[in-house]
Structures are given as structure tokens and as C-alpha cells.
Design brief:
The protein is α+β, with helices and mostly antiparallel strands. It contains 12 helices and 31 strands. The chain folds into 3 domains: about 150 residues, Immunoglobulin-like (Sandwich); about 150 residues, C2 domain (Immunoglobulin-like), CATH 2.60.40.150; about 230 residues, von Willebrand factor, type A domain (Rossmann fold, 3-Layer(aba) Sandwich), CATH 3.40.50.410. This is Copine family protein.
């Protein structure tokens, strides 16, 4: 999956110095290396916003993301100083999974020294580049009697939010000094950012008079689409620019070429130019716009879909005596056993998408009071807070008088989790929300009845659930591999199971979580598609409602020349060249 990251900040500290005005901030974004042998990657830097301590940068950064991957980015803010070294204004590190799991897919960090930095992520769709060249004529002067305006333009994309439609600026041109008939340089804009590859999706073009203090004055606007731009370029007819309902000049599209299309975008491009503009466009009349496409995991998460996690742990006798070193359940204060390692790695990732971070923890395969239990509660509560709570519940079982027994049976755990998933989603739906459950089964051996387990999985495929099975120890797990490939042949049922052998990823927790969770995004979107449920509109965000954290001190320095950006770090142990 590709995601887009955008940045803005509020009330940064002015570091320009006495009598030197207000800082001109820009940001550098670095993807931190989180695996052995990997190097950090500088994703780029934003534009400079002049004289502004609350910058809203239009530069968008695109990064690959998979559920289960540990992606972190460092954002460093600097005051541009000409003919001298740029001055640091603050920095913060963001965990992309935490941002995706936060309300409105946005997270804020209070920066040391003053101010707040916000990072927003969203799905990236489509491909291709729009090469756009524009000129304007007869723009209305908004500068006053004794001067002329300095026009520049912005391109904004239309976002659907829970509170209604909103515009998000994604490109800003250069400004031309004292010119009411400007011809701007050619712009190259990524269509995945501007319109998600949809040639019929509305675009807003705003023209502003540039002001050195940053409070730019509107000169006019118009709403159009990529198809509309292409049609205007072919016809050479001017588009009407309006300001507060009145004529404010003419806009000429000198070039509107699209290159680098993928298959999806080509299909969108094949739409008739006659449907180029939305109904509300002041430039053309009577033409509608539409969007389409298959929804994916990020669409549902952006709409507030909760991921619930249920952990089920194997306490059968084949795990060995937990009092003996080297057995799978041996508890050693100095080192995690395999069960603890798997819980730590997988639940820590999934917890970022769960608002309350409370998880049921169940056990199976142990005797209580002489009777074998194939699904029992671990710990003293029906849910446990965070990864540490899950580990405490796991540890508590060994103080509860259990007798580790056999056989290995998943059926009761799967059925209980499926019912839990159905109830959780019904409860969320009653409040206008959505919920999907992941059952994490940790086991040391193959199930005793593969066919019964397969039938339980087939039944559960009708519910909003995925089942992840992690095999620990040295069993051959042949039955588990059958379950991994089982999807109810001839029944049309969803494949909801994923099996991963822990030993193959023992020394790389990121590899473990990626392999364990990589099928869940498709399973989630396939479930909701199968019942005809669309994602809710993206949750509207406001700075006051965004999840906030204090940022730890990070020592960063920056050196930029024409060919490279060098970021050197202290406390975060990353260096990018």
C-alpha cells in the first residue's frame, strides 16, 4: 500500500533573532531505519513558508506501508537562513501505524522549545503526472492604488470528511512580481495526490496576491477537473475566474498533459471530455463529476473502523514443563520465551489500531478441576490493557493451578472469537461505526482434528474476523499449512486464516509481523465488500481533537546543497546521506 503524508505546524518558536523578523520554516522528512542492515532514507523537504510560525506545507510525501511493518519518520523543522547555516526550530518522530490508528489519521507532537507539529496520513491512489502550464489575463488588482499584485496559484484536492467536503492544498506555484497578466512556470503534479487518479474529480484553483508576511490576499478561484483542464487546453478558450461571486479575470490553460498512467488511470482517462467539470463549476455548466474504485483497508481505517484483537494461547502439555529451562513456556525474567516474543511483536502493532487497547486473552488445552478446557479466560478480567496487560494475563495462568494437558483443539476458540467479532461489529454499527476482529492463536503443534477446524473457519468466514495462527517450536505444522490454504472449496467462503512458523522469523520481529499480518488488509476489505458495507467518510480532524504527545529531545543537524541532504542525529541513532 502507498500512503501520503502531509505536515503542518502551529505556534513554532521564532528563531530568526532580534530585529530579523519572523522565521521562514521548512521541514525535512527522513524514513528511519528500523531493521538491521537497513539505512535511513531522506524522503525530501517541503517548500519554505516565509514569515510564518504556523506553516501549512503543501508538499506531500509518499511512502510504502504494510500492516505489520514498523515505519517511522523523523520530521525536522528549520528556519531558512540565506548565506548562513539554517537554524533548527524543532523535530519529532512519528510511528506511521500510530498515526493511521489515531482519530482522523492525524497525530500531533509538542516540539521541544515551543510549538506543535502535526502529521496526517491518507491512502495514495492512481498514478501519473499532470504537467500543467497556465496564464491569466485581466486579473483584478488587490494590492491598492499605488502598486500591483504579485500573483501565484494553488491547486487543492477535494476530500470527503465526516463533517462535509473540505479542500486540501497540494501544489503552490512561484509568485510573479507586479503582474496582472501572469504566465507561470510549468507545474508537474502527482495525480495520485491531486485526484487519486480520477480525471473527473474536482480540483480547486486559487489565485493569491503574495504578501511577504504570509497573509496572502485572494484574487480569485475556479473549480475544474483534469478532464476540464485538458478540454480547456485543446479549445484555448478562457476559464472565468471569480472572486466573491464577481468576475476577477480569465485563466488560460496552455498545457494539460498527463503521463505515466497505470491501467486504472487509463480507464479513468478514457471517460468523455464532455463530462469534464463538476456541476458547481463557474466555468462550465450542467456537467457532473463522479468517483469510483474499490475500497481498501486504509479507506475503512480512515473512516474509523476499529481493529479488535483476541489472543488465544496454547497450554497443552506438548509445550513442556514451564519450570524447565528451554521449554516454550519457561518464564525467565532476563529473557522472553517464544510466546512472549510473539505477543510483544504482533499485539504491539495491532494495538495501534485499537482505540481502547483492551484485549481478551484466552487459553486452551489445560485442565482445571480435572476437566479439559478448550477455551478459558486468562487473568482476572475479561479484557487486558495493552501488551503489558496481555503478558500479565498470560503469566497469571501459571499461578492458577492449571494442569497442562491435551489434545490441541481450536474449534471452541474460533467459535467464541467469531461470536465476539459479530457482537463487537453489531455494537459499533449501532453507533454508526465499524469493527473487525483478529484472532491471534499461539500454538506449539498441529490441531488434533484438521477437518473440524476447517469447518469452524468456514463458518467464521461469515463474520468480521481474521484468524492468525503462529506456530512455535519444532513441529512440522503440516495441518496448519492446510488450514492456511483452506477457503472452503466450492462454497465461495472467504479465506480468513493465515499460518506463520515462528522459527523462520525468530531473529527478525518485523519479518514476523509482516508475514503474520500481510493478508489482513485484503481480508477486512473483502468482508465488508461481501456484505455491501462501504467505509464511513474519513473522520474530520481539527487541531483540538488530534491525539497529542510530548516529543523527546532529538539532536538533529542539517546540511543541504544542490545534490544531497544530510541529516545527522544524536538520540535517535539514525544518519542519512
Amino acid at each position: 500500500m502507498k500512503i501520503e503524508m502531509s505536515l503542518h505546524a502551529l505556534r513554532l518558536k521564532n528563531v530568526a533573532g532580534t530585529f530579523k523578523g519572523t522565521s521562514d520554516p521548512f521541514a525535512v522528512v527522513t524514513k528511519i531505519a528500523t531493521e538491521p542492515g537497513k539505512k535511513p532514507e531522506v524522503l525530501g523537504k517541503t517548500e519554505v513558508i516565509k514569515n510564518n510560525l504556523s506553516p501549512n506545507w503543501v508538499k506531500v510525501f509518499i511512502v510504502d506501508y504494510e500492516l505489520g511493518s514498523n515505519v517511522k519518520v523523523a520530521v525536522s523543522i528549520f528556519d531558512e537562513v540565506r548565506k548562513s547555516e539554517n537554524l533548527p526550530m524543532g523535530c519529532a518522530v512519528f510511528d506511521i501505524a500510530e498515526v493511521l490508528g489515531a482519530r482522523g489519521n492525524t497525530k500531533g507532537k509538542r516540539v521541544k522549545g515551543g510549538g506543535t507539529l502535526y502529521l496526517h496520513v491518507r491512502k495514495s491512489n492512481g498514478s501519473g503526472v499532470l504537467r500543467l502550464k497556465m496564464a491569466a489575463k485581466k486579473l483584478k488588482n488587490v494590492e491598492g492604488l499605488f502598486s500591483k499584485s504579485d500573483p501565484f496559484f494553488e491547486l487543492s484536492r477535494k476530500l470527503d470528511a465526516a463533517g462535509g467536503k473540505t479542500w486540501d492544498s497540494v501544489y503552490r506555484s512561484e509568485w510573479l512580481k507586479k503582474n496582472l497578466n501572469p504566465e507561470w512556470e510549468e507545474a508537474a503534479v502527482d495525480l495520485s495526490i491531486l485526484t487519486e487518479g480520477d480525471f473527473k474529480k474536482p480540483i480547486l484553483i486559487n489565485i493569491y496576491d503574495h504578501e511577504s508576511k504570509g497573509n496572502h490576499t485572494p484574487m480569485g478561484e475556479l473549480e475544474i477537473t483534469v478532464n476540464g483542464l485538458k478540454a480547456a487546453a485543446e479549445s484555448r478558450k478562457p476559464l472565468a475566474v471569480r472572486l466573491k461571486g464577481k468576475d476577477a479575470g480569465e485563466l488560460y490553460i496552455l498545457k494539460a498533459d498527463v503521463s505515466g498512467l497505470d491501467t486504472v488511470t487509463q480507464k479513468m482517462a478514457a471517460a468523455s471530455i464532455s463530462s469534464a467539470l463538476p456541476t458547481s463549476s463557474p466555468a462550465y455548466k450542467g456537467i457532473g463529476a463522479s468517483t469510483g474504485g474499490r475500497y481498501n483497508f486504509l479507506d475503512y481505517i480512515a473512516g474509523g473502523c476499529e481493529l479488535n484483537v483476541v489472543v488465544a494461547i496454547d497450554f497443552t502439555g506438548s509445550n513442556g514443563d514451564p519450570r524447565q529451562p528451554g521449554t516454550l513456556h519457561c518464564l525467565n525474567s532476563g529473557q522472553h520465551n517464544d510466546y512472549e516474543t510473539a505477543i510483544n511483536a504482533i499485539v504491539s502493532i495491532l494495538s495501534k489500531y485499537d482505540t481502547d487497547k483492551k484485549f481478551p486473552v484466552w487459553g486452551f488445552g489445560a485442565k482445571y478441576g480435572g476437566e479439559i478446557q478448550h477455551c478459558f479466560q486468562c487473568g482476572g478480567a475479561d479484557q487486558h490493557l495493552g501488551v503489558e496487560g496481555v503478558l500479565r494475563a498470560y503469566h497469571a495462568v501459571f499461578k492458577s493451578g492449571l494442569v497442562m494437558s491435551r489434545p490441541t483443539v481450536f474449534v471452541e476458540v474460533i467459535r467464541a472469537a467469531a461470536q465476539h467479532a459479530a457482537n463487537a461489529h453489531a455494537s459499533a454499527q449501532a453507533q454508526g461505526g465499524q469493527c473487525y476482529t483478529i484472532l491471534l492463536i499461539l500454538t506449539d503443534g498441529s490441531v488434533s482434528d484438521v477437518q473440524a477446524t476447517a469447518r469452524a473457519l468456514e463458518d467464521a468466514s461469515n463474520d468480521p474476523i481474521s484468524v492468525v495462527i503462529v506456530g512455535l517450536g519444532n513441529d512440522d505444522f503440516s495441518g496448519m499449512r492446510f488450514l492456511d490454504n483452506f477457503s472452503g472449496p466450492g462454497t465461495g467462503k472467504r479465506d480468513i486464516a493465515q499460518f506463520v512458523a515462528f522459527n523462520q522469523h525468530r531473529h527478525n520481529s518485523q519479518s514476523l509481523t509482516r508475514e503474520t499480518l500481510n493478508e489482513i488488509p485484503n481480508q477486512l476489505s473483502e468482508y465488508f465488500a461481501s456484505i455491501g458495507v462501504r467505509p464511513n467518510p474519513p473522520i474530520q480532524r481539527s487541531d483540538s481533537s488530534i491525539s497529542m504527545e510530548e516529543e523527546e529531545e532529538i539532536d538533529l543537524s542539517l546540511n543541504i546543497d544542490e545534490d544531497e541532504i544530510v541529516v545527522a542525529a544524536g538520540g535517535t541513532d539514525f544518519v542519512a546521506y
